[in-house]
Amino acid sequence: MNWRISLLLVSLLTTLVAQSSKVSAQIAADLTAANPQAIVDLATPAGTSLVKGQWRYRNAQIVPVNFRRPGADRKASGAPNQTYDITPQAGVANFDDSAWEAIAPNTLDQRRCAGKLCFNWYRLNLTIPPKVGNFDLTGADVVFETVVDDYAEVWVNGKLPLVLGQVGGAAIAGYNTPNRVLIARNVKPGQQFQLAVFGANGPLSQPPGNFIWMRSATLDFYKPAAIAQIQENAGGKILRLDGALDEIVPSTAKIEKLASGFQFTEGPVWVKDGGYLLFSDPNANKIYRWSPDGRVSIFRTKSGYTGVDVGEYKQPGSNGLTIDRQGRLTINEHGNRRITRLEKNGVVTVLADRYQGKRLNSPNDLVYRSDGALFFTDPPFGLPKGFDDPRKELPYSGVYCLKDGNLNLLTTELTGPNGIAFSPDEKYLYVGNWDEKKKVVMRYAIDANCRISDGKVFYDMTKAPGEDAIDGIKVDRQGNLYVSGPGGLWILSPTGKHLGTIVGTEHPHNLAWGDADGKTLYLAAETSIYRIRLNIPGIHP
Hints:
541 residues, mainly beta, 6-stranded antiparallel beta sheet, 5-stranded antiparallel beta sheet, 2 helices, 41% strand
């Protein structure tokens, strides 16, 4: 075995071990759906002819390339070195495969590549037909499913979307395991797609004495909302107290249940770059990822605490989540009593864990201002004994601003500061109070230097029926507030008028604006995740 191949195997083994360590902390949730309405078998001439497709094939090669060692920034910024790459890079958009071998669809199961440690590409351009059988494909959702012996990655229209915690889909799903990829929703006849399947012979750490072949390849067509088995009407009701609510919540609005079975959901945030929802389960010490194809995976395990006394904690994990201007996830860690930022290279940066030398209580919720200043609340709810916990070092529950590396205490007047949000013009800061004796939303004037003034009760819910106090708060672009309060999600006008309440089958404790237009409100409600479509877009992080 020559030295280049030896180094290659070491590199591949290292990658495999790293991937295995991540997968062990994930839940493998396949793309769930009801039965498809129609199937096109892409391993048959009739199937590929129906979508006007032609399979093309080429072996992939391992080639030496110049690179750089890890630098101080943990990126490839160090001394020059030599490593390996794959050629061709055939997953990218508009890749020209016209010179590749054209293969018949009924030969996809033919053994290909050189055997042992080898890789290859299968590519197919396809066009959505008007119908498959009697099923009209207009508005349908389409899933590409393939099983490659032994591993596969699937590119769609030049993209291989990968995020932390992803299991399957476009990524390697497992040994001879189906890759199921949602190609698109609401397709139209004539719409074109480019599929590129990268195959690998495995296991990589012990290359087998056989070859790569495609066991199956199909297009599955579904009715809208069948994928992910979204419960389109999850019950609940909308209490309309003022006609102005009709401009916010459409008369046809429904509460949809997206996922369930968690211990306690909190802190949702929509990630624009990738189009998915992250949310905390502080009781389970995890951050989950929900994607529109219905997959739920663990994005981050041990999200808030790794202490030896974790068994004493009811909510050791992360709580509030948000995204900064550079798209980096910022996390309130209950058990670790700190706020961290997850860098793009995986490094965790501690933003705040002490004030004047004393440990924070258990940071709860947070929001960025457009200038990058971070505001957060710090009640002791994440400590095992709350206000009476001996670990508590600060004598109060604070509201803070972290700006230019300096942590500023804004106020200590609330016993349980919780949800926090800005008005659209950022002139006012809203803070909710989780206190059964004082269920209020406060409004403060705030200046550029993190100084507050003119603090006043914006709305008092203390006498409202219901056990819950004030939890999460969000604001739409017209200045309406959405407040988790007694009995449901209260909608308040910018002047403090109660317009109505969204009441679900589970109480929503926190919320996030999402989807491309920002008009979908995602609700973290006890054991589940819900959503509702509204007329007015919200303010994204």
